[in-house]
Each structure stands twice: as structure tokens, then as C-alpha cells.
């Protein structure tokens, strides 16, 4: 296979070599020039652990055809918008095209995970997935579907929902509120005014406080089928919770025979960085990471509720690394230079690209951990004459989700992490989750310092490359008047290794 400049045979992809469409996951025939990343990322990924099943491939191609039929700019879209403008749902319960509209919430990792989840839901329910991209996210991702757009037109009056982005407490059209107001419901005919059509749109609040957790009950899915427009407010990876809906289980099994491949495959399918982001990624990778024999991504995220002093955090990273045998160990009583000199003599130590070289890529809002790791390998030789170089593309100091250049750098770093052979990420961070999913790597996750106490053990190896659904989705929920059968769910889902129990993942 042809190598991209800056690549050596050792870091070329191992499987799917030469298959830029990722084994039928991606559609053929899209414009290369407008979105080069779509055709180039396969050269950078180190693993291709799961191919798209035939069923998933068929389903995606069908989806793409449906999207083209129903997308903004088509007569069917215009018809659906007119229906919405009329303020009434369709009397016969459905229009030819029905939609999930994704609304932004929280940081980039959160947004990407809720996009993957919403898209999966659209696949399962025959809907069309549109995104209400705010300005700060508008130029991050290429169009994912051929010959059409996934962007919801949002100029004045284009989309007739006033106040499309309500604060969550104002969400009076959320499903549960409408249910309480008896505007809609499983026993709709009994409670709603006789012959009343369903509302034209419903908000789904699947965010942190998960107001609409009954969404994951089968009987409510039946009701929602009649609603043309679902406006999805979520910052979570809620895909695992869809397993609670009996009607979805068979289809999920057919689409993803390996459960842990859901987010991996759908993220690689859906996300393709735009040119400006891809330029950052490719330039950085070639300059700093490509020459090394192996790359370890280290992502350090500190949450307010789990903050600890930087010394403690750094020690946690080192303790984890020792426990999982991750970062190269150093010779404590230095011998500085002896090993290096030997390596030089044997021709291995001439640069960071020798046959025994490791690049550590640090992604963090702060420079501190990068500085410490860099000093570690500057002041001490790595065991075995290994050459270790430490890099950090940016340290933004604070999250600035409203700023599009900041988001571009964040996305670039998510991709750079995803081109690692191994990942050490921060537990509970969606930024880390997305990197692992894209990479196809089961990361080692630093555990959160709940109550500001340094966690013991310092980290755990993830049981799957899937993100955790961080909010217990079905806690206290009654489906068909009965509590959810947790034992049954436990047979399909796993408990997240980085979060309190009751959170689940594939
Ligand atoms: P989470 O909060 O860790 O779940 O991840 P999110 O991506 O949802 O939100 C964190 C946001 O903070 C990111 O989207 C970035 O805007 C910023 N951020 C956090 N960590 C990093 C980092 O390592 N690099 C960069 N460039 N930005 C980061």
C-alpha cells in the first residue's frame, strides 16, 4: 500500500491496509478534495479491531438514501417543516420523513458522544438525523452523508420552533412534561382530547439530570413513533441504554455482533475533521509522532468534583503506569548517558525515530504534566536504552467551548490521541472516551478522585473501548408499571469501570 509522507512501514496500518473505505463502513464516491481526512485517517489509525457487519453496511447505505430523500432542500423536508409550522402533528401519526434533531450541550467530547447516540437511534427507528450546529462547532466536521447535508437550516424562520435552545428547566415540551400534561402518552386515546393528533415536536431531555428517562421504555418508544420531530438534548453516550428497549435488541445485535464496536464504528463513520482541523492533525503527527516506533497517548482531565493537587495527580499517573506497565520506566540512579551511548553505538539512539523509540503525547488543558514527564525522561535514561520523547500540542488552560479555534485544537488532539498504540485516559472524561473509541483501543483509565481523595487503585484497564453512559439511565424508572429488570440488563451491558455502579456500557 502507498505510504503517506512521513510514514515508515512500521507504523503503517496492520489490517485493512489500502482500504480507505474501512471495509465498507464508509460510502464510496465522496469528494476527496473537500474533505481529505475521510480518505486519509486510515493511514494513521493503528488498529482496525472490528469490521462493519454486512447488516450495518446495508443499513448505512439505506440510511444515506433516506437522508438524501428527506434532507433540507428536498420537497419532503419542506413538507415536514410545513407540518411543524402548522403546530399540529400529522393526523395519521406519521409523515414520510421523520427526524431526530441533535442540539448541542457541553464540551466537544460530550457533543460527539450524543451525536453518535442520536445517530444510532435514527438508524434504529428509520428517522433522519440532523444537527443544529452552533457557530463554534460549525467548521469542525465534514458532511458525513454523500450528496446531502446533515445541517438543520437555522436562519431566521427557517426552522419554525421558537427558542430552539431552551434552558433545560424551561423545557416545557419535554416528553415527560407533555406526558404529565396528558398531551401525549401510551394511553393517549384515553387521556388526550378525542382525536387529538400528536404534537409536531417533542424535546427529549437525556442530559445529566435525565428528565426523560422513560424514553428508554418500549411503550414510550411506540408513542414517540407518532411524533415527527424529536429534538434531542443530551450530552451523554446513551446508546447502551437503548438496549433496555426490547424492540431494539435484535437489531442492535445484528448491526453490532461485537457490542464493544458500536461507538468505535459509528464514530469512524460519522466524524471526519474539516481541512483546517486535519491540517493541524497531520502536520503535528508527521513532525512529532510518526518517527517513533510506538505512541502512547496520555490524556489528563481534572474535574472540579475530583480535583487533587498536581503532585498527587502526577504520582497517580506514575503509579498507574507502573501497575499497567505503560510508560517506559527510568533508571533511578541515572547512569545517564550510558544506555543512550550504547544505543548510539548500536545505531539506535540517533533520533526519536529509532527502532526502540516511544513518543508520549500529552493532551491536557495544563502544561504541568507534560513538563514533569518531559523532565523525567530528560533527567533520567529510560531502561533498555529506549528513546523517549514527550509532546503536548497545546495547553489551553481553560475550557472555551464557545470559541471555534479552541474547539478545532480540541478536536485535533482527540484525533492525535486516537492515533496511539496505547492510551492512558482520565476516567469519566468524554474527551478520553471519544479518543479511545476512534482509536479502537481499550484504554487504561485513571480513576477519579471522588471527594478529592487520591484513588486506590490509581487506574483500571477498560473492559471495552466503549464509552460509559455516565448517568444511571434507568434508576427508579418504571416501564409498563414495573421496575426495569436489572438482571436482564446486566446480561447485555457491563458496569463502567470508572464510575459508580448503575452506570452502564456495552
Ligand atoms: P469532558 O469534560 O472531559 O467530558 O470532555 P469535553 O470534551 O466534553 O469537554 C472538555 C472541553 O475542555 C473540551 O471539549 C475542550 O474544549 C477542553 N479540553 C479539555 N481537555 C483538553 C485537552 O486535553 N486539550 C484541548 N485542546 N482541550 C481540552
Automatic annotation (TrEMBL):
GO terms for cellular component: Golgi cisterna membrane. It is found in: Golgi apparatus, Golgi stack membrane. It is a single-pass type II membrane protein. GO terms for biological process: cell wall biogenesis; cell wall organization; xyloglucan biosynthetic process. Its EC number is 2.4.1.-. InterPro entries: XG_FTase. Keywords: Cell wall biogenesis/degradation, Glycoprotein, Glycosyltransferase, Golgi apparatus, Membrane, Transferase, Transmembrane, Transmembrane helix. GO terms for molecular function: galactoside 2-alpha-L-fucosyltransferase activity. It comes from the Eukaryota. PANTHER family: FUCOSYLTRANSFERASE (PTHR31889:SF36), FUCOSYLTRANSFERASE 2-RELATED (PTHR31889). May be involved in cell wall biosynthesis. Belongs to the glycosyltransferase 37 family. This is Fucosyltransferase. It comes from Sorghum bicolor.
